Amino acid sequence: SATPDAHDEL
Amino acid sequence: MNLFRLLGDLSHLASILVLLHKIQTSRSCRGISFKTQALYVAVFVARYLDLFWRYISLYNSAMKVFFIGSSCYILYLMKYRYRPTNDPSIDTFRIEYLLVPCAILSLIFNYNFMPTEILWSFSIFLESVAILPQLFMLQRTGEAEAITTHYLAALGIYRALYIPNWIYRYFTEGVIDPIAVTAGIVQTGLYLDFFYVYFTKVLQGQKFELPA
Questions:
Q1: CA distance B12 to B152
Q2: I want to staple B93 with a disulfide (CB 3.0 to 4.6 A). Which of B53, B74, B102, B136 is the partner?
Q3: Which of A4, A8, A9 is the closest to B111 by Cβ?
Q4: Is there a contact between B174 and A3 if contact means CB atoms under 8 Å apart?
């Protein structure tokens, strides 16, 4: 998803 | 996933492999700050425990397992196997000056006031300053082995590459993560002095030495 709280980065 | 982020992550991976290589081949952890390495364990555990409830991709999970595992292994090497080569008397940065402000900041700035999100914010803030004991140690000793500087350079490049990644994501996905971006810019900024010496000296074949 495109919200900051997706936290898909390492 | 975009190229900047991939190269950044690979640089992060490379930095840890370089550090392990340095410790294993010289059978010594001289010049490495135990405090910085311990802070990285705290960062990775606080951020990557979401392995258990958030699945993003195999790549993402594998990297998380690697970062937690390798950082713990490095602590083990420093604390046990190569303990005599670790000199705490030059590793004198007071980490409570980092931990307490980061804890307070994470309570104020987070995306949701719940333990997992506060831990995530805490890990982002802590990562941005975790290198300070190491840089402080470098400053004190005034010099470093080339391989140690390659480790630091790879670590700094990883963070620097995340910045174009955020710019790219802003334009392609319309996403912006203010906490990660702010902390990331601070973190990259901490490396500027180091980068200057690294690129003008070490990469020209000279020894890493700071002006007295």
A1: 10
A2: B136
A3: A4
A4: no
pLDDT (tens digit per residue) in B18-58: 999 999 999 999 999 999 999 999 999 999 999 999 999 99
Facing residues of B144 across strands?
B208
> Nearest Cβ partner of B174 from A2, A9, A10?
A2
Of A3, A7, A9, the CB nearest to B5: A9
The Cα–Cα gap between B197 and B195 comes to: 5
A9 vs B contacts (CB less than 8 Å): 5, 162, 165, 177, 180
Rounded-to-integer distance, Cα B181 and Cα B13, Å = 21
Contact B111 A8 (CB under 8 A): no
Q: Are B118 and B107 in contact (CB under 8 A)?
A: yes
